[in-house]
Amino acid sequence: MTSSDPLPVETDDGVRLWAATSGSGVPVVLCHGGPGLWDMFGDLADLLADTATLYRWDQRGCGRSERRGPYAWERTLADLEAVRRWAGLERMVLAGHSWGAQLALRYTLDHPGRVGGLVYIAGTGIDPPRTWREAYEENFQERMGVRLGRWAELKERERSAGEEREFCVLRWSADFADDGLAHARRMAEPWFDVNFDCNAAINAEDRLTWGSAELRERCRACPVPVLIVDGEKDIRPRWSVNSLAETLPRVSRVVLENAGHLPWMEKPGEFRHAVRDFLAGCR
């Protein structure tokens, strides 16, 4: 399949999800971050178009997908399974970014026979979020610099639609190694409203379940090869990922210098090289 036209995915409870496919090669299903955001993988898909057939989708209630819940971990995992069936894949590589890396990991642990490899991009490991959250907040404030005042002003009051976009762009600018406003504005094109209900519901589940001994044991038993790709200057402390890297039995890790939370945007050549090498072993 090489068409870039959007195609509908219908879940088992009747919710319609936006999806699209492009490229040619190893089948790779992409899982975007959030929760509550949408697919921002246009540049990444272009980088890998000659290596992989890429399947992109907006998660339930997000972006171009139908804005209807429920919003929960098990529901999102079932939606990812619906995408796999829509794509007609018996096996696939999963590539997830940020929270989407956690989603891709959970699906891999649940269905290792359906996953030929996992590309874990800028995730935060398997320890509880509280272990790294304080360091993240400190790094965020430092990286924001002079933009912090305006962001804080918007944070404390009701925002118009235009101000909501500005608020997110300002926050996302801290996700890049250098002055990230241009990159952050690119992330916001096209713009869709953030689904804060989805974000709150799934993050609440994370706080209850992430970091469990059961999750750690399941990672130790995971037979699937995993590539962890980090940006050295991600404001989410990279030591948070050690909890995962030290647990998986078949893992390699690439840390890209002078890159932040979206390493394919700041270091496209190095990112492409690392992922292409990994995909070559997943055929």
UniProtKB/TrEMBL annotation:
InterPro entries: AB_hydrolase_1, AB_hydrolase_fold, AB_hydrolase_sf, Peptidase_S33. GO terms for biological process: proteolysis. Keywords: Hydrolase. This is AB hydrolase-1 domain-containing protein. GO terms for cellular component: membrane. GO terms for molecular function: aminopeptidase activity. Belongs to the peptidase S33 family. Coiled coil: none annotated. Gene3D superfamilies: alpha/beta hydrolase. It holds the Pfam family Abhydrolase_1. Residues 27-268 form the AB hydrolase-1 domain. Signal peptide: none annotated.
